[in-house]
Design goal:
14 helices, eleven-stranded antiparallel sheet, 710 residues, eight-stranded parallel barrel, alpha+beta
Length: 710
């Protein structure tokens, strides 16, 4: 249905968006806490009115959903478009407002002089608090239109906005929280790695101090983009502030022919007045409400066993069969054969692209191994890296022209592999055909889809830039595989968490959060990821006794307690475990199976703790059950630690509180002994007074389970 009201209002569960459409451009009047149902939007206009400032425009250029050069906006334009250097000063006027349904609207604007249609799509469901927004450009002219930038809708920040939180890091150290003040001027982060990257996650959090995990106003922004992107947070000299996110294009990458269009990746924006944990709960609820999440709710997230750190490229058949039996005995439910199974793949210098079972290693094919896995009561999973090719491969020797590159510039050496051009239909068809054949020939329940290098030279065979086309091609192949094999789950792995975003999660079922299985590193990695991504989508594995990346030795108890709060798995040589380690790991697997229903559906509450500690809880939405985890990372400063105050319990209810991990309880005290046996306490006291923490060794902790007594 179509109409032309002067204002657009969308209400979420606890949030409201109001857009002023009276003038030429749509301008956000309010995005934040829910406002009264009968509010006259003109009161917001009055409350925001300003007098003219010295040496300034009489009327400021609008901070519109897409700020435009033609409007004279002094900040970052939301659209940069031109026709061979002409028709660059885009100026649109609102043409109409189309209501898709009561919670989704499209605001259509036109620039008739430059033959451009600009559409903003906004959706805020009444049972959610995540605004989903995108921008669409249509070329209505007779000549090609070059798009140099087209951001998702730009959103304003309130005057109280004080700090930015970025998630940066590196390989094996992703999702690190970096807090910086929001001052006058621009903070710009650009990613050109061809994937969402380890060091520039496409998300941003804006805090309004004072703020913590449970208190304060927080605005979250996430761009569902799996490739290059640009994030801008700016405060103008007139004190208006905003956040803008969009794809980052290579020169000439987007040229629209007559009638063609471009749609930006979706912006997922959340507001909470209950701190960072409140914002995370909004994102988690939105992710879990997606139709594609139903496949994950259909069965419990199975315990993984992955072979990588047990065998690497040494696929000895007898050893693999022993690992199958050991994994089943420990309680694993899915056995994943990692890198090294295909033709010529004896190390990382050869074989990528030749997706045929290596008969010199598997003379009878994969069938004997798969049959043994299924007979042991587990599903079978397989590692693939379809976007990559080794120069030492049959595929590269046959089709060197299929590789992205910027000749005559030499390729950057990166794990002995090059990137195939998924923008080419013949490349997509070939790779789809090979993966489809594997899924057809074998009862494969799960694909670990890896991407172990950046797209450093994203040039196509015709010399044009192809980074955007590669991501679009990847999406097309994944969508095609999902349609042909709807029961197969797919993991997005990119040397760990190098491609983790809502765009890739539209067509995959979990992310590999990091290549590091070091439990202490994983605490901060999983904490950062949890700001946007719920536990059931985060791959988290118990690694070997000595971490292969950091060399650090962490107890089995701590490795288990860290991995429990994700999609749990094991990536260690089970044949090298001591009997005691094997018993403790089996107990951890059993505990995960007991708690996974709660962990993968409850509300996350991270607790504000000193820097040498980490603690969080997951509380069932009906309040009937909760689990809280605590880890001491470094030795405590005083002889005794403080108290652990729990969160989000029913203050009027009584809870049975029991220490459920580790199997050997921490240092003894009267409280510890009571918790081991189980003790009944009321919710108000647990939150207001808290539990005295026991004296612990660094790198140890415990898990409490709470059941409400009705």
């Amino acid at each position: 249905m179509s109409s032309s009201p002067p204002f657009v209002r969308l209400d979420g569960k606890t949030t409201t968006l109001i857009v002023d459409c009276r003038g030429d451009a749509p301008i956000v009047l309010h995005w934040g806490a829910r406002l009264a149902a009968g509010l006259d939007p003109m009161s917001l206009v009055l409350m925001a009115s300003r007098a003219a400032a010295p040496c300034s425009p009489a009327v400021a250029a609008p901070l519109a959903l897409t700020p435009l050069l033609g409007q004279g906006f002094p900040g970052a334009p939301g659209l940069l478009a031109h026709r061979e250097g002409q028709a660059w000063a885009t100026f649109t006027r609102i043409d109409r407002i189309d209501w898709i349904n009561p919670s989704a609207v499209e605001i259509v604007s036109r620039d008739d002089h430059n033959a451009i249609v600009l559409t903003h799509r906004l959706e805020l469901r009444p049972d959610q608090d995540v605004l989903v927004a995108s921008t669409r450009i249509v070329n209505e002219g007779d000549a090609a239109l070059t798009i140099d930038a087209c951001a998702a809708p730009t959103l304003p920040l309130p005057p109280s906005a004080s700090h930015l939180i970025n998630l940066d890091g590196r390989w094996s150290g992703e999702f690190q929280m970096r807090r910086t003040p929001l001052g006058q001027g621009s903070t710009v982060r650009e990613n050109r790695r061809g994937r969402s990257s380890h060091d520039a996650f496409p998300g941003l959090i804006v805090e309004c101090a004072p703020c913590g995990e449970a208190v304060g106003e927080v605005y979250g922004f996430h761009l569902g983009a799996s490739g290059n992107h640009r994030i801008v947070a700016e405060t103008l000299s007139d004190a208006r502030a905003y956040v803008q996110m969009g794809e980052l294009f290579m020169p000439g990458e987007i040229r629209l022919g007559p009638g063609a269009d471009y749609v930006s990746p979706a912006l997922y924006a959340a507001y909470s007045d209950a701190g960072l944990s409140g914002m995370s709960q909004a994102y988690h609820a939105w992710v879990r409400a997606r139709p594609q999440h139903q496949r994950l709710r259909a069965k419990p997230r199975p315990v993984h066993y992955n072979t990588w750190e047990a065998v690497y490229f040494d696929h000895d058949q007898e050893r693999l069969l022993q690992l199958v039996e050991s994994a089943a005995a420990i309680g694993a439910e899915r056995f994943v054969l990692d890198d090294g199974w295909f033709k010529g793949r004896r190390d990382d210098t050869a074989g990528l692209g030749d997706w045929f079972v290596d008969e010199s290693v598997y003379p009878q094919g994969l069938k004997p191994l798969v049959d043994r896995v299924l007979a042991a009561g587990m599903e079978f999973g397989l590692w693939v890296e379809p976007e990559m090719v080794n120069p030492d491969s049959d595929l590269y020797r046959a089709h060197p022209e299929w590789v992205l590159g910027c000749a005559p510039a030499p390729q950057l050496s990166f794990r002995n592999q090059l990137v195939l051009d998924f923008g080419r239909p013949e490349v997509r068809d070939y790779l789809y055909g090979r993966i489809d054949a594997l899924l057809t020939e074998h009862p494969i329940a799960y694909l670990k889809w890896d991407m172990n290098r950046d797209v450093s030279h994203p040039g196509g065979a015709d010399g044009s830039a192809g980074a955007h086309a590669h991501v679009a091609g990847l999406y097309a192949v994944l969508d095609r595989l999902r349609a042909a094999h709807p029961k197969v789950e797919i993991e997005s792995c990119a040397s760990g968490g190098g491609r983790a975003d809502f765009g890739i999660l539209e067509r995959t079922d979990r992310i590999w959060t990091s290549d590091s299985n070091d439990a202490l590193d994983r605490l901060s990695i999983q904490k950062g990821a949890s700001l946007f991504i719920p536990a059931e989508l985060m791959g988290a594995h118990v690694g070997p006794t000595d971490c292969h990346i950091t060399g650090r030795r962490v107890s089995m108890a701590t490795r288990v307690s860290t991995a429990l709060f994700g999609h749990f798995g094991i990536e260690a040589n089970l044949l090298a475990l001591t009997p005691g380690e094997r018993t403790e790991l089996a107990q951890g697997v059993a505990l995960y199976k007991q708690l996974r229903g709660l962990i993968h559906s409850g509300d996350l509450h991270r607790l504000d703790r000193p820097a040498n500690e980490t603690a969080f809880g997951i509380v069932a939405q009906d309040g009937s059950e909760a689990v809280f985890a605590y880890t001491l990372i470094r030795e405590q400063d005083a002889y005794f630690a403080g108290r652990l105050r729990l969160a989000s319990l029913d203050a009027e209810a009584r809870y049975a509180v029991k220490l459920v991990w580790p199997s050997a309880p921490p240092a003894s005290s009267a409280l510890t002994q009571a918790l081991v046996e189980g003790v009944e306490l009321d919710g108000r006291t647990l939150m207001a007074v808290g539990l005295q923490l026991p004296r612990l060794h660094p790198q140890t902790g415990f898990i409490l389970h709470l059941s409400r007594r009705d």
